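Sample 3 of the quickstart, ligand (2S)-2-hydroxybutanedioic acid:
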Amino acid sequence: MNKFVKIIAATAVLASATFAADYTIKFSHVVSANTPKGKAADYFAKRVKELTEGRVEVKVFPSSQLYTDKAVMKALKIGNVQMAAPSFSKFTSLVPQLQIFDLPFLFKDVNHVHAAMDGEVGKAMKDLVTKKGFVALSYWDNGFKHLSSNKKALIEPKDAAGQKFRIMSSKVIEAQFLAVKANPQVLPFSEVYSALQQGVVDAAENPLSNFYTKKFYEVQTDLTLSSHGYLGYLVVMSKKFWKKLPADLKPKIMQAMDEATAMNRKLAAELEASYLAKIKAYADKTGKLKIHTLSDAQKEAWRKVTAVVYPDFYKVIGEDLIKKAQE
Ligand code: LMR
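Result:
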């Protein structure tokens, strides 16, 4: 190595040492980077870097690259990752009350969801999660879930009878499908495509962003725009890691989180229509997917048959909280 090359190499080492972050946050999630959650996570990483002037680095790992949602809870506890944004159902064994968000037909629209998240219900849930060793940072949106199948179009509740549904690990969702005599099976998100393809399950429920970005339309013949339930996220950080952060950095992280939350909500609303347009374009082009909308009477039939789930969870979730969320 000549002298000039040596100087360049030494400068590079010095520069990387100078600019290496003081704290690194590994942020693991299971969906594609081009979803409302994926984009918000990337934006959060960018804003943290800017606001902390590089002292904190957030490395985002999408598409279950590091962990499934179940495993990530453990990984957070032992410090293998510092952040995650699991859907509410994934907290079932830890904070079963969060299943409130899984109740079928609980929310009229996304404004209703936000009122619950930003109000008393959301605060009560955050407090419960905090007691379990996490810092509950924020609620993020995905969207309303829709039913799909490759066995039989799901128009009336009786169409679900006997169909094997992939579900998230939520007792409320399990009860919802048992109410229509279906056969629910818990599977991690990373296995949904192959399970549908190989016939391990026939059917699923997903928001359009997950249905589109994971190409579930390739392995389903019918999509019913049922909007029967909501899928959102609680963004959490390891409490141990949070405690280690110096006081001057914490408000900056919170600011980045507030900005990412605003961006996530805007994006989730905006992208919904474009995902549907893309799914429709695929359906028109290939003729391999039928998209169904439900009449008011059909929707009411689903609501009525799945409403039996509510009283079963009054105790687990709290009847008062359910009533508050309904308001
Ligand atoms: C699922 O497992 O279907 C979802 O929780 C995935 C996600 O994070 O949206």
